[in-house]
TrEMBL record:
Lineage of the organism: Bacteria, Pseudomonadati, Pseudomonadota, Alphaproteobacteria, Hyphomicrobiales
Taxonomy, superkingdom: Bacteria
HAMAP family per the UniProt record, alphabetical: Ribosomal_uL10
Subunit structure: Part of the ribosomal stalk of the 50S ribosomal subunit. The N-terminus interacts with L11 and the large rRNA to form the base of the stalk. The C-terminus forms an elongated spine to which L12 dimers bind in a sequential fashion forming a multimeric L10(L12)X complex.
UniProt-recorded name of the protein: Large ribosomal subunit protein uL10
Assigned keywords, A-Z: Ribonucleoprotein, Ribosomal protein, RNA-binding, rRNA-binding
Pfam family, one: Ribosomal_L10
Function according to Swiss-Prot or TrEMBL: Forms part of the ribosomal stalk, playing a central role in the interaction of the ribosome with GTP-bound translation factors.
UniProt key word rRNA-binding: yes
InterPro entries listed in its UniProt record: Ribosomal_uL10, Ribosomal_uL10-like_sf, Ribosomal_uL10_bac, Ribosomal_uL10_bac_type
Length: 172
């Protein structure tokens, strides 16, 4: 790889890692192409990306970002998974690591906070931003629904009484 190509790779990695909500670094020694393709598809479907980069270039890219210093994780054959949603990459990587023993999570970062392997797995158990938004919308909607039903009840009660009175008058 020529120097110009290396600069382009480092610049693209810097851009990707700077905009990531979380980053997961893992070893992928002996992982089959089919399994790795499956991982890529899962992460891509969830809105993230998986990259394999030379360790030296990844370390250079990290130096120019505000991401925590996780350069020590880049030894051996490493994979970088990242996404804007801070929970997506850890969640998919942790689930993938449970199914594939050859995929070993080394650690990662969430903003300026460095995470070890246990930290990444703990982050994976949290709900995603979409799940949190749905729960919040449900909590906001529920009181409004209750208020609407309470406001409708007196009117409905009056309507039932009037209907019963009208039926009684017609029967007599």
């Amino acid at each position: 790889m020529e120097r110009a190509e290396k600069r382009v790779v480092v610049a693209s990695l810097q851009e990707a890692l700077a905009g990531a909500g979380s980053i997961v670094v893992a070893h992928n020694t002996g992982l089959s192409v089919a399994a790795f393709t499956d991982l890529r598809q899962q992460v891509k479907k969830a809105g993230g990306k998986v990259k394999v980069a030379k360790n030296r270039l990844a370390k250079l890219a990290l130096k120019e970002t505000d991401v925590a210093d996780i350069a020590g994780l880049f030894t051996g054959p490493t994979v970088i998974a990242y996404a804007e949603d801070p929970v997506v990459a850890p969640k998919i990587a942790a689930a993938f690591a449970e199914k594939n023993q050859k995929f070993v999570i080394l650690g990662g970062a969430m903003g300026q906070t460095a995470l070890d392997a246990d930290g990444v797995k703990a982050l994976a158990t949290m709900p995603s931003l979409d799940e949190l938004r749905a729960k919040l919308a449900g909590l906001v909607k529920q009181p409004a629904t209750n208020i609407a039903s309470i406001l409708v009840q007196p009117g409905a009660g009056i309507a039932r009484v009037l209907k019963a009175h009208a039926e009684k008058s017609e029967a007599a």
